[in-house]
Known about the structure:
Blueprint: H1 13-25, H2 30-45, H3 55-60, H4 68-71, H5 75-86
Amino acid sequence: MPTTIKITLSASPDIVQMAKQIAAERNTSVSALFANYIRAVHQANHPVVKPKLHPAVEALSGCIKLPPELEKLGDKELIQKCICEHYGME
C-alpha cells in the first residue's frame, strides 16, 4: 500500500459540501476525489509521449477493420481473445 501524507485544504463551506456530495454520489472519499482530480489535471498537462513507430508499422495502421463486437475491446482483451481462439481455449 502506498504511503499517504495528510494535508490540510481550505475551502468555503459550500465547496466542502459540494465535494462531500460528489464523493458520496461516486461512492468514494473527498481525499480520493481530490487525488483523482490532481491526476487528471497532471495527465492533461503532461501527456505521455508514445514512441515513434517504424514507418512499415505505421503504414499498416488502420488497414484492418474489426467487427463492431471487437472494436470495443481494449488491446489486452483483443490479444487475449485472439490467443484463446487460436489455441481453442474459448
